[in-house]
User: Fold these one by one.
Assistant:
Number 1:
Amino acid sequence: MRARRSVRPVQALAGLLLAAALALTGCTGSGGDSGAASGDSDVARSEAKEAAPGAAADDAAGGGKQASTAPKLPTSHIIRTAELTVQVKNVPKALEAARTATVNAGGYVGKEATFRDEEGTEETQVTLRVPADRYEEVLAELEGSGRLLERTAKAQDVTEQVVDVESRIKTQRASVARIRELMDQATKLSDVVTLEGELSTRQADLEALLARQASLKDRTSLATITLSLSEKPVEKATEDDDPGVLDALAGGWGAFVSMLRWIVVALAAVLPFAAVLALILLVWLRWVRPRLPRRPAPAGASSTLGPLPTARPAPQPGRTEQQGEQD
């Protein structure tokens, strides 16, 4: 029992000594680490101070760049159209030059119509589609091909329409995708039929939106120029002032001539019928009427005893009294 008691204090003392040694070792290490850490922090601070002026300069330069750079504006979508009337010496040559300018700009020639008037003068009207970024260049070249008589240019901003169509397309596509997911999950035939009808309607709406988007893209990416080429100047109707005496006489004479012309036209229209009627009347008087049997003239009334006495008129009362007085 004594041996066991003597051993336990020794073991306890050894454990205390080991713990004390470990504590001293930890304190020494922590002191070294703190010194190293403090040294590293001092070095870092000195490096930061040296780099601070450059960093501040870079920050200032970056801020200046951000301040000088303007915010990006949204892309605008504009439909550009123009109408030109140009007088040229030779219409075919001017038309070929306009085609060449359009093709070189990356566009194409659309509708074209050529005709000649009564005097043999040739006139041409052609529709040109050119890229929007080359619109002004091509327009200036066409104006310089001859004598500019008339010019009309229009610009329509459809940015809101383009943005609205794009947003509606995204929404419609998401709607179509949801309907298809529901169709995959549907188990009843009635649900499938209903979802198919809804999908067909929404798909048609989506296709209509896509067609409208394509139309807007075509009209905004390509400008339209309607070019009219003529070898003679266009005569514009001038507005006359108040009519005078000569104008009234000229107008009256024109109305009189027009009336006579219409009368002659009416007579010419009636003349064939009148000729046929006159021929029928002549045939009746010359050949048909003389051959018809004539009726005998009425004779006086008679009987076997002789002619019947004719009735005398009844005497008037006033006249009879006057004759009696005279008798």
Number 2:
Amino acid sequence: MTDQTTDQTTDQTTDQTTDHADDDDRATDTATEAFVAHRNLLFTVAYEMLGSASDAEDVLQETWLRWVKVDLDQVEDRRAYLVRITTRQSLNRLRAMSRRKESYVGEWLPEPLLTAPDVAQDVELAESVSMAMMLVLETLSPTERAVFVLREAFDVGYDEIAAAVDKTPAAVRQIAHRARKHVDARRPRQSVSASQTRAVMESFQRALDNGDLQGLLDVLAPDVVLVGDGGGIKQAALRPVTGADKVGRFIIGGVGKKANRFAITPTVVNGSPALFAHLDGELDGVMAFHVEDGRIAGIYFVRNPEKLGAITAEAPITLR
């Protein structure tokens, strides 16, 4: 073989390698563009299935690693395919989390999300990520939760859900019916506006700031339930506290011991007005509320520091 022939062969090989590299780069760019376009949706799907922002972020990483290996020329609906991958990864993680929760110290609450104020104006979105609803979802099996979330919150078709959870469409319809019935029996009795919740919360905060037990009792529903989550790291009630008098005295007693070191500030968590609790200038916990008939029916106090990492920045959540 002459030197000229060798050079030509080398050039051709180099050109082919360059072409393949360019194709790979274009495919990666296309995959990245599609993933970024739907990232907020995928995060919301994972969070509603898991109740944990940190686990939802891990699921997104796993989704991305699988997505870049997909031949996009064979994908008709990229959004649907991404939701499918996210659902499968969330189901795997949800089953592992179920085992973790069995050894969890005290009550388990969802990881609170710092959300933009305008999320509260989107009633459907705010309700789907509310603490009260997230706790109801905890009572479903992993598959029931996946089916319910995809169908009710994201309006995914039965055929696509079936592909995501490895069930037949007929089975998915039955699971959806069973899950909907289960949730309807346990979901909050009524939704109130963000302004109504904010007004009640402000009265709650004033009573707390002043150590006013009667003022606190005035805004608590007779059958109010307080659920605390310290995870064995921070002190919290190991079981729910029920009844206005017990809840009021529990709160006043807990704050009274360190009133001069304790500060409360308003915020928006999981699409609803909430309160940050600071102790000695450091974030100590998040209080979320469920309001019915102008009174607080549920208080959810997350103190576990391992669950407070997601409230340093607003979570970009969406149902579409």
